[in-house]
Amino acid sequence: MTIGLVLLAVIAILIFFGLSDKFFKNLGVASWIGFLIALALIVGAVIPNITIGGFTMNLGGFIVPIIGMIILAAFIGWNWDLARLAFAEISVAAVAVATRVLILPDNSGMILAASLIVGFVGGTVAYLIGRSRLSTLAAVMGGVVLGDLIVNLIYVYGIGGYTFSMGTRGVFDSIIVGCVFGILLLEAVVTARRAASNKRVANTSMSTESGEDVNKDDFDDYFDDTIL
Question: 90 lies in a domain?
């Protein structure tokens, strides 16, 4: 959980001081909403696990990500992007299940390894399928939680010897690492596309006597949340 908390603290500071306003403008979400989600994740993570009977849950790794996913999905709206988000979530969940079944949480090292693998691979899958900032974030949050639910069912009723515990065993770290890595990967692709577009525009300008043929639409993709 330490990795996730450190990353979230950095993100919260960037949001608080307005250093991420451009990102949230591209995302189509007010920066204060992003700050509240980050703060809720931090608070939920540091609150002790809640146990009800034989069920244990961590708010930061279970309840808050579900709420965050719902909020982000609402901004996406009722369209085909929502269907793509659902497919991305199922794919991220598959990554989480496969990884955590192969790497059982028998010690802290294995928990850390599984959480990082789910984070990096899940974030990549969320970006490749979601193809937008909103979908990438929502797919990681919803997908990792869904995967955790399936994994718990396998641990408790299949393998045996485990308790039903949602949002624990490195799930929080997987969510934060997945969100951060997925967005960094997306932004890297956007930056590369912008650089290629700038080069193409520069070559066009040099090959003509005036700049009338320069297509300003080449720059529009960066300001659109959807990465085609």
Answer: yes
